[in-house]
Amino acid sequence: MADTAFGGIKISNLYKIFGVKPEAHIDAVRQGLTKTELNEKYGHVLGLRDINIDIPSGCIQVIMGLSGSGKSTLIRHINRLIDPTAGEVLVDGVDVVKMNRTELLAFRRHQTAMVFQKFALLPHRNVLDNTVYGLEVQGMARAQSVDIAMRWLERVGLKGFETRFPNQLSGGMQQRVGLARALSNDAPVLLMDEAYSALDPLIRTDMQTVLLDIQKEIKKTIVFITHDLDEALRLGDQIAILRDGEIIQQGSSQDIVLRPADDYIASFVKEVNRGRVINVEAIMSAIRPGLPLSGPQVMAGTSVEEAMRLLSLSGQDDAAVANASGEVLGMVSFRQLAGAIVDAHVPEGGHVHSTGNVVRA
């Protein structure tokens, strides 16, 4: 069972049917009625079918899919902006679906924060007043809320802009305000719905870096919606790919790239730069008995591309893969590294090895 300690989320058997009588068709959908049949026969739209996701606390869970796949519908079930037709959404072990109005209001104010694609800033409020808005709603004293907001504005790179108004900021700066506002609430769960989709590519990459750097410190449970695979692979500790309201594959970036579940997923990953995505521990082989370990070492978590560079500089054909403690986990060869770049499958003898936090050996 997933960790549902502080901020952990468990979504179980979640269905959403849009229409005037969704409950009347839930059994038929459970028995296999397709999205097309539901629409053509009954005039209802299947939004989600049997979604099951465990999100450990402190994890970045990416939900990915094309337009109409159900990803935004799914994230809105977590703070119950949308009521499900059936299923459970447990946050810290409490079912959001069963909350009454008062409980739901408190949950939204204190346990979740949301960052939107369109920024959702109040145009008549300056940067500081937009950032403190959530704290004002909670009833926090002005001096305390300003102190918190100013710290987060500095952290996202907006120190000195607190008196500016949204129309005086670039898109990237507006999204930084939205992020600072969400982080100021100090909620354990952060929901980000296509948060960077409206940004130019360079600004988008910069915002991804900001988020990853901040996450190292705050370790929130983040649910991040995107249609961009590169963004999903960079940000996600876990990735779930949706199509027509169903999860097609779940796993780490290594799982998705090395072992696509079907042709649909394979079409997503075929243009991915595997050298930058795949890590050495995903393709390493077991240590061969009697083989001396005096050669170069690479750290677990090193990309295939970087490992190839290190081996080339060393003039060696093989390297040991080690964790932060110096423990050797396996071996990787230049041939394995090169093969991983052009082949979607883990080489024979290779495996995924979970190593936790590691540093360069």
Keywords:
alpha/beta; 13 strands; globular; single chain; 361 residues; CBS-domain; 37% helix; 2 domains; 4-stranded antiparallel beta sheet; Rossmann fold; 6-stranded mixed beta sheet; disordered C terminus
Outline the structure in words:
The protein has 361 residues and is an alpha/beta fold. The chain is built from 15 helices and 13 strands. A 6-stranded mixed sheet has the order 6-7-8-3-9-10, sandwiched between helices. A 4-stranded antiparallel sheet has the order 2-1-4-5. α9 (201-218) links the parallel β7 (189-193) and β8. α7 crosses α8 and α14 packs antiparallel against α15 (334-342).
* CATH H-level homologous superfamily name of the largest domain: P-loop containing nucleotide triphosphate hydrolases
The whole-number mean of residue pLDDT values reads 88
CATH topology of the largest domain: Rossmann fold
Our count of domains comes out at: 2
Strand segment tally: 13
What portion of residues belong to β-strands? 15-25%
Low-pLDDT segments:
1-5, 344-361
Largest beta-sheet details: 6 strands, mixed
